[in-house]
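Quick one, tokens below:
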């Protein structure tokens, strides 16, 4: 479900109005700001990690992180905040050699 679907459902159910504002109208823009603020509050609530707001490097962006022998520094996705658990290092045979 995307924002437009949620906004339309809210407007028709709780405002009892069948004429839903379009994305060029002020009320739509205010609703979008409030929705973004709600997501920010949700993301920061009591140090809780929500699976709905969590993604992995493989599923975000290009979908892959190529590891090169001898390279020790890699860029993180632009929306990276912190690791969601241990970062495991495996050798070329798939054997675990370290964790951080």
């Amino acid at each position: 479900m995307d924002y437009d679907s949620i906004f339309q459902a809210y407007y028709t159910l709780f405002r009892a109005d069948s004429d839903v504002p379009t994305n060029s109208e002020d009320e739509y823009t205010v609703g979008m700001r409030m929705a973004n603020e709600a997501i920010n509050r949700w993301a920061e609530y009591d140090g809780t990690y929500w699976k709905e707001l969590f993604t992995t490097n493989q599923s975000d962006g290009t979908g892959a992180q190529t590891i090169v022998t001898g390279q020790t520094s890699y860029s993180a996705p632009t929306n990276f905040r912190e690791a969601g658990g241990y970062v495991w290092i495996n050798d070329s045979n798939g054997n675990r050699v370290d964790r951080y």
